[in-house]
Amino acid sequence: MSAMAQIVQVLPVRIRRRIDSLRTVATPSGDGYNRAGIDDVTALTTLALACRDADTVSFSYRGSDAATSHRTAQPHQIVNVESRLYLVAWDLDRTDWRTFRIDRVAQPRRTGARFAPRRLPGGDPVEYVHDRIGSMPSRYRVHATIQASAERVRAEIVHYGTVTAVDSGSCEVQIAAESLGWAAFCLVSIGAPFIVHGPPEATDLVKDWGTRLLAATRATGSGPGCDSSISRLPSPSDRGLWPGSASPR
């Protein structure tokens, strides 16, 4: 028995039950996922216990537009995806499945109304959250063909787009994005030849990048030949522009 397990065994029953409830949090398979930060441990454990006990919960929820609404839901499971915790639940007011970012949940309360668990579409809560994030409305849908296998590209873009195999060495992608710059950065970072088919704003942006990047290979120092606009290309720190930073609603 590990030292942590020994400590848990001697904790008061109420605290031990809360810790045990967190063992049901679903994570992607393998060791590559990132651990999610926890802002409100009380809210998290309340929701985890409600998932475990099939107990209906009510809470306030702040949407991606900053509007707050009151929700009553039957919690199914808590999922860790891309360093965020999500609650997958059946929303009683909307009579449909919903995902809620737990960092946007406030004052969750167990109502004591027990329910018979429903079957989640597809069965896998992690994949369900991935699909929900990828299907969110976005300002742009960038369509491109990439000279790489669908398996490789799918692993690179994760849930930020859909990948369809053309043959063993190429595939088509549809990337949903609020920022064309970030979508283009994503395509470039795959490290394989690609062609952007649309929208027109995306093809124009990639052409502009190409011109400026070629100019950068000819420029030296900070003289007249150096195009300072290249510094405005997005960097990994701009990840907040990516649709995954928004919340499924």
Layout of secondary structure:
Elements: H1 3-9, H2 13-21, H3 41-53, E1 55-62, E2 68-81, E3 84-91, E4 96-101, E5 105-114, H4 125-134, E6 140-146, H5 150-157, E7 161-167, E8 170-177, H6 180-189, E9 194-198, H7 200-218
Antiparallel strand pairs: 1-2, 1-5, 2-3, 3-4, 6-8, 6-9, 7-8
Helix pairs in contact: 2-3
> Over all CA atoms, what is the radius of gyration?
22 Å
DSSP helical segment count: 7
Beta strands, count: 9
Q: Could you tell me the strand content as a percent range?
A: 25-35%
Order of helices and strands: HHHEEEEEHEHEEHEH
How would the global form be characterised?
Answer: elongated
Mean pLDDT metric: 76
Please give a structural write-up.
This protein has 249 residues and is α+β, with helices and mostly antiparallel strands. It folds into two domains: 132 residues, no CATH class; 106 residues, 2-Layer Sandwich (Alpha-Beta Plaits), CATH 3.30.70. Helix content is 31%, strand content 29%. The strands form two sheets. It has a five-stranded antiparallel beta sheet, sandwiched between helices. The protein has a four-stranded antiparallel beta sheet with strand order 7-8-6-9, covered by helices on one side. It starts with a helix and ends in a 31-residue tail after the last helix. The N terminus and C terminus are likely disordered.
